[in-house]
Amino acid sequence: MEKLTIEGLKTVINENTEDLYYFSDKMLNDGIYIKYKVLQPVGIPGPKGLKHSHIQVGNLKVTGDIVSIAEYYILYWDVLLSDIELYRMIKDTYEIYNSHSRSEFGELMRERAESGAISPTPKKLDDNNNIINDLLNDIKLIKRLGDSNTVNVTTNVSLPPNAPTIKGIADNETALAGKAEPNVDLNVSQVGTTFMQIIKDGRLMNPLYHGTSTLFLDDILTKGLGAENPIKKHNIMETLEKLVKKGYEYNEYLPKSNWSPNSEHWLLKKNNMIVNNEIANHRYGGVYLTPSKFTAVRYTRNKYGSELISNTIILYHFLKENSVPVELDNDFLSKIINCSYDPVVIIASCVDCSLLQSENNNKPVDDTFKDLQYFLEEGFDPQQTNFELPQPNIITPEHLTVLSVEEYNNIKEKHNPTF
Question: What is the pTM of this model?
Answer without folding.
Answer: 0.53
